[in-house]
Each structure stands twice: as C-alpha cells, then as structure tokens.
Amino acid sequence: MTRATKISFVGFGEAAMAFVKGWRQAAAIDASFPVGAYDIKSGAPDPAVAAAKQRDYAACDVAGADSPGAALQDADLVFSLVTADQAATAARTAALHLASGSLFLDCNSCAPGTKRHSAEVIEAAGGRYVDVAVMSPVYPKMHETPLLVSGPHSAAALAALAPLKMKAQIFEGDIGAASSVKMIRSIMVKGMEALFAECVLAGRKAGVDETVLASFDVTYPGFHFPFRAAYNFERMMQHGRRRAEEMREVALTVEELGLPSEMSRATVSWQQRIGDLQMEAGEDNYQSRADALLARIHANEMKLEK
C-alpha cells in the first residue's frame, strides 16, 4: 500500500486533531477523502463532554462514529492516539474490527513491553502493527511532528505516511525500539517538569525563587529558566494527568530493563498532583502560575484537615 484509501483514528484528541488539520492545510488530503474517528468521549455520560467531542469531529471535518467498528470499517490506515493507560484496550478493541492487512499505527506513549503485547493482538487479527513514537508536542508542527517508527512493517508505514507529508523515519529494530527512545527521553523531559515544579514552588514559598532561577541562568546560560518554568507549569496544568499515565509506562520501561525507577515514579506523583487540580494556566509568567498552584494546593490541604 502506497496511499491509504481511508484513514481512521482510535482516539480523537489533541494529536489526532493536529494531524488532520495539518493534512488539510498542506492539501495532503482533500475534502472528499474519507477520514473516520472514534473517541470514547463521544459516548460519555456527561452530555457536555459528548457534545464537545462531536464539535471536535465537525471542526476537523471527520466522520465521527458512535462505535469503534463503525469508525474502522474499510480503513486501511489506523492511528491509535489514546491515553497511555487505554492503549492496550484500544488495540484489543480495534483488533475486533480491523480490515485484513490494514496498518495499525500505535502512536501512544507506552513501554516497549506494552507495545509488544498490543502487537500480538493486532497481528493475530490480521492487521499490521507499527510501533510509532511521537517525538515532540504536536503544536506547532501538526502533521510534520517528527515520528520514529519501528517493527517489521516500518517500510510500509513510511510509504503510507509519505503522501500525507508526515515527517517519519525508521528506527531500526523490532517493535518497542522506537518507543524505547520516547520512553527513556521522557525520563528527562517530564522529569525536568516535575523538578521545576518542586523547585519553583518551594522557592516561591521561601521568597527566593528569583534568586534561585537567576543563579541557574548564570550556571546554564541560554536556558532561560524563568521562561522554562512558566512553560513547564503550563504543560503540567494542561496535560498533567496524561503525562502521569505516560510516566507510569516510563517507569515500567525502566523496570523492564532491570533498573530502579524511583525518579520516574516521583515524576508520576508531581504530574498527577498538578494535573488533578484541573487549572487553567492563566497569565504567561511563572510567578502567577506558581502562586495560583500554591493557593489551590493550600486550599485542598485545608479541606482535608477539616
């Protein structure tokens, strides 16, 4: 297969929407090209959540389906873009409906072991499983976000992605190789976010945050620590829950390698804690974001004490 005749998404959140918008802006697909999608939120008990997902489908001009089977019917290129904790379930569900020979691109942030288990399910159903690692945030690059692909169907995946003008490259190795890069990279990337949170929040409470961050800029010139602090707070406030799920898979990756995973587990804790607050990022500076977080954390502590 060199060009898909129908593309479908399992999970239709930020990444899926970015890919479709990018394809349309780059004229990689035209208005008549069939794109299907299924997201669990479309059947959410909360009508507001379900309606919001329907608006997402409409905004991207995709055929939102009420079931995975309807979304995957006749699709020969399937992108799985769910939260890390739902990736294995999504693969098992998709396997019930995949067309024989279809490419299943597992773009989820999962441990290599998780990917291998999903691959067994997809391959047993007649699909072709591809391990995909999404190597940066999907904005602003959208469909041009760098991807690593690995596994026996990597060449076929690249041939299918090329007409969509996506920036994918093969990472040599079996299923799990590409994800190893993503998972191990996340130890540092998401771990730094957690370190920033603990350091800056403590510094803010102690009244020494400006001095501490200025000293970092002397030691590591060009890193722009106040800007990074604001950016990292925004990412955790908006995506902390999803990042916590990814970091659980990161910890699993480390443990699969026979190493202790205390740092990754601690990152899970900070990402989950801030994500669970479900706060808007607000003003684009670290001080206001830190103060808002501290106020909410303090208010939650007061509730627990009552």
If you had to describe this structure to a student in words, what would you say it looks like?
With 306 residues, this protein is α/β, with parallel strands linked by helices. It has two domains: 7-175, NAD(P)-binding Rossmann-like Domain (Rossmann fold); 185-305, Orthogonal Bundle (N-(1-d-carboxylethyl)-l-norvaline Dehydrogenase, domain 2), CATH 1.10.1040.10. Helix content is 55%, strand content 10%. It has helices spanning 14-25, 47-60, 68-72, 87-95, 112-124, 154-161, 177-206, 209-219, 225-256, 262-276, 286-305; strands at 7-10, 35-38, 63-64, 77-80, 103-106, 128-134, 147-150, 168-170. Strands 3-2-1-4-5-6-7-8 form an eight-stranded mixed beta sheet, sandwiched between helices. β4, α4 and β5 form a beta-alpha-beta unit. The longest helix has 32 residues, at 225-256.
Can you tell me the CATH architecture of the largest domain? 3-Layer(aba) Sandwich
Order of helices and strands: EHEHEHEHEHEEHEHHHHH
**Total domains:** 2
Describe the biggest sheet? Answer: 8 strands, mixed
Report the CATH topology name of the largest domain.
Answer: Rossmann fold
- How far apart are the termini? 63 Å
What is the CATH first-level class name of the largest domain? Answer: Alpha Beta
Low-confidence stretches: none
Average per-residue pLDDT, rounded, comes to 95
Record field, number of beta strands: 8
Q: Label the overall shape.
A: globular
Give the structural class: alpha/beta
Nearest-angstrom radius of gyration? 21 Å
Q: Order the strands across the largest sheet as they lie in space.
A: 3-2-1-4-5-6-7-8
